[in-house]
Amino acid sequence: MATTTARRTGAWTPWLYLAPALLLLGGLLVYPVYQLGLISFLEYTQAQVSGGEPTTFQGLGNYATLFADEQFWQVLLATVLFAAACVVSTLAVGCALAVLLTRVRALPRLALMLAALGAWATPAVTGSTVWMFLFDPDFGPVNRVFGLGDFSWTYGRYSAFALVLLEVVWCSFPFVMVTVYAGIRAVPAEVVEAAALDGASQWRIWRSVLAPMLRPILLVVTVQSVIWDFKVFTQIYVMTNGGGIAGQNLVLNVYAYQKAFASSQYSLGSAIGVVMLLILLVVTLGYLRILRRRGEEL
Q1: What's the confidence (pLDDT) of residue 10?
Q2: For the segment 33-66, what is each residue's pLDDT rounded down to a tens digit?
Q3: Cα–Cα distance between 172 and 217 in angstroms, integer?
Q4: Can you give the pLDDT at residue 80?
Q5: Residue 101 exposed, middle or buried by CB count within 10 Å (0-12, 13-18, 19+)
Q6: What is the DSSP secondary structure assignment for residue 217, as one 8-state letter?
Q7: Which region among 71-75, 107-111, 197-201 has the lowest average model confidence (pLDDT)?
Q8: What are the start-end ranges of the H helices in the chain?
């Protein structure tokens, strides 16, 4: 009897240690998500905030209004394509530089690491402002070096998205680079040397040897990049002045901000937030399920 009681007590011991962190996460994450979902089912505009009109339950009315809006689907498509381009570019740059770090000497490696960590540590607003100066049509050095004259990068839709993509990759690749580099260093050198002796090129070594062994790490950086890039806000808002000309560079986060705060339609803004949350959950869980089917360790 005493043994059974001790086992039960021991089973609860990990939860006791985790309790403070779970309470903190509950306050910082669960409650705001609950409030977000609750407001998305209400009629909640400036009239309700000021107390001029009572709050009424709308059910799925806000979602019906949102899904009937053609602009929402256009912004959703633009967000998905933009996020996908950012994720692919970030992973490509980060993985390439991680491999480069294993090929250079200590001093160049240290310089590259410090430069990358400096980009990573730069606040998004600061980084976006610096990039705006670099590509400024009047004073920016980029246009002068490439002889582009007074070409405005933020005037066209695709050039503005390309400019924001470069800034997003610049501030995101250090996480991928450092994480993948740490994973490569953990791979036994004998495995890589054996592949090189067999005549495999650097690309073949990466594709057939390193990438399969680093798949759990690549999973982490991919999912993290998807979450970060799908909910980009600061770079788009700062560099395109709130979404570009006539909203041509809107993404879901900026679109939700405009609905909630510029138009005082807080319930519609909350509904967009819930849709974003569900999309990210589906993508993440789907990716994890695919890996589990393949028998990968997570």
Answers
A1: 64
A2: 899 999 999 988 888 888 778 888 888 999 999 9
A3: 16
A4: 94
A5: buried
A6: H
A7: 197-201
A8: 2-25, 31-40, 46-49, 61-67, 70-101, 106-121, 124-134, 141-145, 157-186, 189-197, 202-205, 211-213, 215-230, 234-239, 252-257, 266-293
Half-sphere exposure of 277 (CA within 13 A, CB side): 14
3-class SS of residue 146: coil
What is the average per-residue pLDDT within 223-234?
A: 91
User: Letter for the amino acid at 9?
Assistant: T
Four-residue CA torsion sign, 151, 230, 87, 283: negative
Q: Which residue has the tokens 């510029």?
A: 262
Pull the structure tokens for residue 130. 């610096």
Calculate the alpha carbon distances from 252 to 77, 87, 271 in Å: 9, 16, 11
Average pLDDT over residues 21-33: 84
- Our CA dihedral for 16, 20, 22, 25, rounded to 10 degrees, sits at 180
Distance CA 285, CA 205 (A): 30
pLDDT of residue 6: 53
The residue count of the chain comes to 298
Integer angstrom CA distances of residue 122 from 8, 30, 125, 161 = 48, 29, 8, 20
